[in-house]
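Hi everyone, sorry if this is the wrong subforum. Our group has a chain we'd like a structural model of before ordering constructs, and none of us has done structure prediction before. Sequence below.
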Amino acid sequence: MPQPTNIFSYRPYWAARFGIAPVLPMSRDEMDELGWDSCDIIIVTGDAYVDHPSFGMALIGRLLEAQGFRVGIIAQPDWSNAEAFRQLGRPNLFFGITAGNMDSMVNRYTADRRIRSDDAYTPNGKAGKRPDRSVIVYAQRAREAYKGVPVIIGGIEASLRRIAHYDYWSDKVRRSILPDSKADLLIYGNAERAIVEVAHRLAGDEKIDQIRDIRGSAYMRQGLPDDWSEIDSSQLDKPGPKTHLPDPYQAEPDCQKVGSFTPHSRPRQLPGERTVVRLPSYDQVLEDEVIYAHASRVFHLETNPGNARALVQRHGKRDVWLNPPPIPLSTEELDRIYELPYTRRPHPTYGEARNPAWEMIRHSVNIMRGCFGGCTFCSITEHEGRIIQSRSENSIVREVETIRDQVPGFSGNISDLGGPTANMYRLACKDKQIESACRRLSCVYPVICKNLNTDHQPLIDLYRRTRKLPGIKRLFVASGLRYDLAIRSPDYIRELVTHHVGGYLKIAPEHTEASPLSMMMKPGIDSYEQFKKLFDKYSAEAGKEQYLIPYFIAAHPGTSDQDMLNLALWLKTNGFRPDQVQAFLPTPLAIASAMYHTGRNPLKIITRKRAVMRVVRGLKQRRLHKAFLRYHDPENWPLLREALTHMGRTDLIGNGKKHLVPGWQPNRDGRNNRPEKAFRPGSSRRPKKPTIQGKKVNRKKHRQR
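Answer:
Right subforum, don't worry. Here is the predicted structure as tokens:
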């Protein structure tokens, strides 16, 4: 892996003489108070501006400020015309466009494509303050506002749409976001290293169309550079009948075949050779689902910064060119980024308005980045990468002290000490050379890699040191816990449940059945059971009554009705009655989304002869799978009785403990819960339609009321 330039080693831009802004300005009046005649960089975001390192616009803005640039923020602008994009004037260097911390489509729509009633990243949770596909809309308006100003897009929305991708909300394959937004450059993944280099090169009078060699960036171009060679993706992973072409990958001796997925090392290349992998074109993946699945598989094999090559994909007459992923930040760089002078609160212009997202994380500390779990439904790996980037213990302690001393309303409780996962802090491959060569999609599935360091002692030491700080009463861990790793360290589980669980610990087995778990790349339910035994044991030793709250996914690709029934029976047997359930939501670029769209499994070599996998698509079946998770809700009983009858499991309908749902339906007014005429299994007769005060009920209208 090449050695990158330290992001804090650049000579500061001349505007550093203006000093540090109390908050990054959002108006011309604020700019005047700072003595600025213009902004060098303007960040446009779909979130309200909160000056906290958990919010992307603040983190990138403060980092660019530390480089000497004057940075302004346009937050949640009116996108109906370009006027709102002129409020800070013309930026000297570029517009930076992001949808915010969440994908705008995920933020606005549920898994059933219904519009959400609120937005946690908007003052007072008000919905409707950002457009669908915000990056495209904002980029176009910024271009209208000031022609000729470079437009750079980034954040999770742009990152997950960097190549042709399946779009769940329109149910079709869309082009890369680059040609749709007409942006000059896309920066994917964690953007710090790339955005700092771009800013300094533009400040040095380099043109945006000349900046083509930065890792973690993508752009449009025509033709292949003269000094580059090309490998067609079909040579790496043939999406058709088996051929006798030599495999350009050479097996890495330190890697072992893992289930049906075989990791590979980079093919041998001549010294100095520059190679790009050509993915199937947009037109090909649009028309052929097998080719789409093949492209998804090849794309994910080229995501390790240590061995990934550039990728190229034809869109019409031009190519989308993706440079290799960015080199992860060092601990020193990460420490300095998180210790920049954030106010850690919303911008003053919001006054007393609530900001739900900030209220949730204002007393939390991010200790690491990345995730090597590789869950197929999750976007963390596609965005942040599999290599864990950890902060130093000293830096984390300093941030906790800052929260204690400076954040209003702090009562002594740190709400979370975590990140994408709670317990991957300082976990990494034991050998950097092996890490750079590996192409595994997960370090922990189907078994934990023998080369992975799973020592939790640094995390235990961090917990102990942090909770002993003066003024700290409780320190909670609320991030998702990887329990298959935790059971490798019983001391960690003891430390966690004794000191850092507030009565309930959320955990995500996701399912109990082998088929959906294999499609998710999640461990079997036996790992959960092992963790639960240790959790209960150490809770009892600590004299605490504590509970695990398991999360499960409904309607994931590879899941059958029988799988969901088995999960429902497991929930009933173990006394779980989930209040909220999660239905699978296909997000762009995720492997599970490719499964959903194509019916093929990119975890295996794609061929046309392989059987199409089971996919839950219809709204009725998706609702049924959610109903199995909420088997205890009377609203779901009619649907479950119908399904159980169809499945030949009427033995599960009745009023006994062995039954999943009763054979009667309560009145909807809730005042008379006396059972109506019971449903008899095998009878064509259905329960009477619910009534309110003797009148027939229109279910849909009543539910709306």
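For your construct planning: The chain has 25 helices and 23 strands. Confidence is low (pLDDT under 50) at residues 241-272, 681-705.
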